[in-house]
Design goal:
This protein is α+β, with helices and mostly antiparallel strands and 582 residues long. It is built from eight helices and 33 strands. Strand 19 and strand 20 form a beta hairpin. Helix 4 packs antiparallel against helix 5 and helix 5 runs antiparallel to helix 7. About 4% of the residues have low confidence.
């Protein structure tokens, strides 16, 4: 009997050995080094069945596929081999060393984590050329180009840089996100809004569709060979395949590409020293100078304004106006600066001015000396100096100065000479009478302040009693918004392209007004996440994104009257449901 018990005990230990096998949870990378334009496959493999898998954050990468799961359960020679794999396909977003963090999974109530793994991201590499590969097709038909309006300019001369996104061969972008925005060191820069409409032009001997993705005007601040950092975009693309659907339409697949405009260099020339005026302050362009006063005649202690204004086209925001000199008898206050400048790709155009407040102290005629202003004209490559005319301020009435006041120009606030005659109008003999302070208690203001709270309380009660239905007013306001945004689209239903442009504009404008967001800065996934955060259910958000996607696809494919009516009704339904839920 004892032998049988021993054999049973050994059998139980051997049979339960697989149940106490050690848990193994590891990370496997397809490559430890890759180019910025390559993909990385990451696999998290565990040798036992687990639950509640939690992936790492994947900082420095964008997920283009995943989470994908696969299970392997094999019996070889009576031994069981089990593994479960969680996999992702990633695209790097920046060069350098990145880390795949810890993934976590729960097995039998215990949490297991992987070890972090480092991967080196290097410069772009040459990828294989396969005409049937969607990634190769996308690379050959999508380009990002930085165009400069000029290659050689002077300091402070404007130059426009336009980043054009070219796409052809039936390849069309569905989503574009910036990765690296250019930093314009040694430049004063201003972005110019772009409508991002699709146009066509020749590029490398082939006709492409293109969008002016970003437009910026630059004003170089120093001479030399100045580099312009590249713009890098992450583009989601719909690429045609050789397959057809049931109705014979070509099937598209979606791929991701990281494209860059490449570095450009601008040659900046310094100002010539020959003929350079002493008062030259860096103004570049074509300008006019005007100096005027609001009054030519006035009395002492009255005020007037003297205005120094420069108009024209050039770097108006990047130089100082010439100072105004005034006689010491005119008290001068610090100027008030104002500008009306419009900045476009061709540069700045408008006017800037300083308005000085002047207060004369005595009678007399006071000249305001001429003002000179120098600038450099890059067209003629020469300096020009403008000079205003002398202005006379005639003070008709006021105190006489005890001695002649010199008409010496002054750039500081004038001090008024102390003279006895200036204060002869002040009375030197007075008669004082006592002031009796009346009692506040029982006065008119006492009773007014006593009754005021009661009157305000009565008005508040009346207001609350006759307050209109807030919910009804809000509902009417929302109805007006829906009618306003969708009215243009409905009127354009006779023509497919105009209809979908108007409908897409209506959807974007609705988001701007209703949620106070700029939709051109958001991808569809981010818009959907924001709607969910605002309380919109997933079904309504999906319907809204579906209509928005149809608007984009309609730019390239014809649409029927029925499909336009269906998209219009879907847009109305989505906006109505969103108004109820937000």
């Amino acid at each position: 009997m004892n032998k049988w018990l021993i054999w049973c005990y050994v059998f139980v230990l051997v049979g339960t050995q697989p149940l106490v096998a050690q848990v193994s949870f590891n990370t496997t990378l397809s490559k430890s080094e890759l180019g910025i334009n390559e993909r990385l496959r990451v696999e998290f493999t565990i040798n036992q069945d687990g639950d509640n898998f939690t992936p790492p954050a994947f900082d420095g990468f964008r997920i283009i596929s995943g989470l994908n799961q696969s299970v392997s359960n094999m019996f070889i020679n009576g031994k069981r081999s089990y593994s479960k794999t969680y996999s992702y396909i990633l695209v790097p977003l920046k060069k350098g060393t990145s880390t795949i963090g810890q993934a976590a999974v729960e097995v039998a109530g215990e949490i297991y984590k992987t070890t972090p793994v480092s991967v080196q991201i290097k410069d772009a590499v040459e990828l294989p050329k396969n005409p049937n590969d969607p990634n190769y097709i996308a690379r050959e038909n999508v380009h990002l180009v930085a165009e400069l309006s000029k290659s050689r300019v002077y300091i402070n001369e404007p130059v426009a840089v336009i980043y054009k996104l070219y796409f052809g061969g039936n390849v069309r972008p569905s989503d574009v996100n910036p990765i690296d925005m250019p930093e314009y060191k040694d430049f004063w820069s201003q972005d110019i809004p772009s409508r991002r409409t699709i146009e066509q032009e020749m590029y490398k001997g082939k006709r492409y569709n293109y969008v002016a993705w970003q437009q910026t005007v630059l004003f170089p601040q120093r001479a030399g060979k100045l580099p312009i950092a590249p713009l890098t975009l992450d583009v989601q693309l719909d690429v045609p395949t050789n397959r057809r659907d049931f109705f014979g339409n070509q099937v598209f697949t979606q791929v991701s590409q990281t494209i860059t405009a490449g570095k450009r260099t601008l040659t900046v020339l310094s100002f010539p020293e020959e003929g350079k005026p002493i008062d030259f302050g860096g103004a570049v362009g074509d300008f006019t100078l005007a100096v005027s006063t609001s009054k030519s005649e006035l009395n002492a202690s009255e005020s007037l304004q003297a205005i120094v204004e420069v108009k024209g086209e050039g770097n108006l925001k990047l130089f100082s106006l010439p100072d105004l000199s005034t006689p010491s008898a005119l008290e001068r206050y610090d100027p008030e600066y104002s500008e009306q400048v419009n900045t476009t790709l061709s540069g700045m155009r408008g006017s800037i001015k300083n308005a000085y407040t002047l207060v004369p102290q005595f009678q007399g005629k006071y000249p305001i000396p001429p003002v000179s202003f120098s600038y450099f004209d890059p067209v003629t490559k020469a300096y020009k100096t403008l000079t205003s005319e002398e202005l006379i301020v005639d003070v008709l009435e006021g105190p006489q100065a005890s001695s002649s006041v010199p008409s010496i120009p002054s750039n500081t606030k004038a001090s008024t000479p102390a003279t006895t005659a200036s204060f002869q109008f002040i009375a030197q003999r007075t008669k004082f009478t006592p002031i009796v302070q009346p009692s506040f208690l029982g006065s008119k203001w006492f009773y007014i302040l006593m009754l005021l709270p009661l009157a305000l309380l009565a008005l508040f009660v009346l207001f609350r009693q006759y307050k209109p239905d807030a919910a009804l007013a809000a509902q009417k306001k929302k109805a007006r918004l829906v009618k306003k945004f969708l009215g243009d689209a409905k009127r354009s239903m006779s023509e497919s392209s105009s209809f979908y442009i108007a409908l897409e504009l209506a959807l974007h404008n609705y988001l701007k007004v209703r949620l106070q967001i700029q939709t051109n800065e958001f991808s569809k996934e981010k818009i959907k996440a924001l709607l969910s955060k605002k309380g919109v259910d997933a079904e309504t958000a999906d319907l809204f994104i579906h209509v928005l996607t149809n608007c984009e696809l309609a730019r390239y494919t014809p649409s029927t009257r029925n499909s336009m009516e269906q998209d219009y009704q879907s847009a109305v339904a989505a906006i109505t449901q969103m108004d109820k839920q937000i």
